[in-house]
Design brief:
Layout (H helix, E strand, L loop, with lengths): L3 H13 L12 H17 L1
Length: 46
Amino acid sequence: MLPRRWVVEWTFSWIDQNRRMSKDYERLTQTSEAFIYVAMSRLMAR
């Protein structure tokens, strides 16, 4: 079984692969949260 730390690091890496998520442009936390959902949905759809 993988250590939990690696799972978290891989998740952050997958999120950062989306160009918009690589920097924190958003003013509202709800907008950032929505883009995280979009990024992870795109990953799961692949």
